[in-house]
Amino acid sequence: MSIWEYANPTRFMQTSGKLLPTVAVLSLLCLVIGLIWGFFFTPDDYRQGSTVKIIYLHVPSALMAINAWLMMLVTSLIWLIRRHHVSALAAKAAAPIGLTMTVIALITGAIWGQPMWGTYWAWDPRLTSFLILFLFYLGYMALWAAIENPDTAADLTSVLCLVGSVFALLSRYAVNFWNQGLHQGASLSLDKEENVADVFYLPLLVSIAGFVLLFLALVLLRTRTEIRIRRAGALVARERLS
Amino acid sequence: MIALLRRDLRLAIRAGGGFGLGLAFFLILVVLVPFGVGPNSDILSRIAPGILWVGALLSCLLSLDRIFQLDYEDGTLDLLATAPLPLEAAATLKALSHWLTTGLPLTIAAPFLGVLLSMPSGATFWLVASLALGTPALSMLGTFGAALTVGLKRGGLLVSLLVLPLYMPTLIFGAEAVRRGAEGLPATTALLFLAAITAGCAALLPFASAAALRMNLR
């Protein structure tokens, strides 16, 4: 039993078909519990008022926006090294989800920023690097869409993903040099004594779990769709030959 | 190698389009800005470093699709791929000749255009230094973008979308070096970062470009 079994599309379809409903239901459950708990059963922050509640959307989506790119990096590497088609298709499937998460993070941040900072947008390092990440997602998806041969497209987008990762990281730290930040520090980290206060912390964890599961469910669904598109294409080609 | 470089340079200069176009675009952009923001020299001198850097970057973009497109269409690229010269070296030479025909003229022209934007005279040195150190990275990254899109019919717009995010760190450090130089602050750190980006690009990107070319030619 190893993870490489799922490089076989049939095995992947079998397992992901069984997994998908469970993951989807769990994600829905976590999201409903986390968001309702967060929105209605936690107190207002003493300084931010009720605007603090956007944290339950903002932080998980920002987290997933970065992790989606990370997943694309790993699957691209697997494609380049071991040439498993499922891996390349998973990277393709994850890109629009990552893009959506980036947009959600940017928009919720803007909605929160207006009452708190007095502006929808500031050229703060974190905001700027998210905008750059957004552009990277756009370029990656445009390259997938532009190339007809699926294998060449997978190859080229993988190389773009590798080079892009280096430069996305570089931009993240270059913008620190360019402007001082307005954005507060990380809300959550593993090595800190105290994160956000406990009343906000627990519902936040639940909604983060919801977003992770949602991402997983969407990636599985979209990868299955891509595999089916590939199969349908192969069937059509076979019909035309005979 | 030398022969390839000389061939590319000769083609760029004699065939027209590539060599003068970037420079003319740069000139027009710099002339347009004062019409856009008004002739107030205070404002102009403050935004001059940024405008000059953005202008140089956009002029570099303009000629990217010429790096490989013509060679791809007439089959030269296939010959280069099968030649004893490694494709990595060919990619490096392509980037070098792109820099010699766009980056270098831009670097030389920038101080004169800075006068039009009433840039403080103290910043001239930093402008030339940062462009000289930064534009090779732009050519290198552009070659990578051109290699990715070489097989496409209308790759021009796509190249811009792919390459612009990659240009971000170079632009940040380049414009920051000139801005700090203009205000009399120490600007060496930004210049060193810029040099590091260029050195890193020169060391690694030819491999990525050559890999992308091989994938496209397969």
Automatic annotation (TrEMBL), chain A:
Domain of life of the native organism: Bacteria
GO CC list: plasma membrane
Cellular localization per UniProt: Cell inner membrane; Membrane
Bilayer-spanning residue ranges: 20-41, 61-81, 93-115, 127-147, 159-179, 199-221
Main location: membrane
Record-level Gene Ontology MF annotations: heme binding; heme transmembrane transporter activity
Membrane topology: Multi-pass membrane protein
Pfam family membership, one: Cytochrom_C_asm
Keyword vocabulary terms for this entry: Cell inner membrane, Cell membrane, Cytochrome c-type biogenesis, Membrane, Transmembrane, Transmembrane helix, Transport
Gene Ontology biological-process entries: cytochrome complex assembly
Domain Cytochrome c assembly protein as annotated: residue spans: 4-183
InterPro entries attached to this UniProt entry: Cyt_c_assembly (IPR002541), Cyt_c_biogenesis_CcmC (IPR003557), Cyt_c_biogenesis_CcsA/CcmC (IPR045062)
Keyword Transcription regulation part of the UniProt annotation: no
Xref: PANTHER family: CYTOCHROME B_B6 PROTEIN-RELATED, HEME EXPORTER PROTEIN C
Role: Required for the export of heme to the periplasm for the biogenesis of c-type cytochromes.
Family: Belongs to the CcmC/CycZ/HelC family.
Protein name per its UniProtKB record: Heme exporter protein C
Phylogenetic placement of the source organism: Bacteria, Pseudomonadati, Pseudomonadota, Alphaproteobacteria, Rhodobacterales
Gene name as annotated: ccmC
From TrEMBL, chain B:
Subcellular location: Cell inner membrane
Ranges that cross the membrane: 12-37, 99-119, 125-150, 157-178, 190-213
Membrane topology of this protein: Multi-pass membrane protein
A GO-annotated cellular component: plasma membrane
Entry annotated with the keyword Magnesium: no
Keyword terms, alphabetized: Cell inner membrane, Cell membrane, Cytochrome c-type biogenesis, Membrane, Transmembrane, Transmembrane helix, Transport
Biological processes annotated in GO: cytochrome c biosynthetic process; cytochrome complex assembly
Keyword Transmembrane helix (UniProt): yes
GO molecular function: heme transmembrane transporter activity
Chief localisation class: membrane
Record function comment: Required for the export of heme to the periplasm for the biogenesis of c-type cytochromes.
Family to which this protein belongs: Belongs to the CcmB/CycW/HelB family.
Name of this chain's protein: Heme exporter protein B
Organism of derivation: Litoreibacter meonggei
